[in-house]
Amino acid sequence: MxxxxxxxxxxxxxxxxxxxxxxxxxxGTSPKPTARVTVTIGGVSAKVKDxxxxxxxxxxxFQIKAEIPAGVSPGKAVPVxxxxxxxxxxxxxxxxxx
Length: 98
Fold this sequence. Notes:
The chain has 98 residues and is mostly beta strands. It has one domain (3-97). The protein has strands at residues 3-9, 37-41, 44-46, 48-53, 61-67, 75-84, 87-88, 94-97. It starts with a strand and ends with a strand.
């Protein structure tokens, strides 16, 4: 598997562990988003391997691990779109694919 892992913030309200909603507290075990998480890389849907809070980080930061799909064209700025429920990542989010 060739994949990516990235940290996100601002979506603590979708985590299944209510303790993760307390601003400034540390995430406990590894609460998961209650909303569906999808990732598109280079216009191709990626398989999300894991999404959840980063243990021992401030609540509201979570990590998404996804496989880079076959067929994604290599490039220095391949577009990435992350969706959590009805919320999308910022525009112009890219990764380098070799």
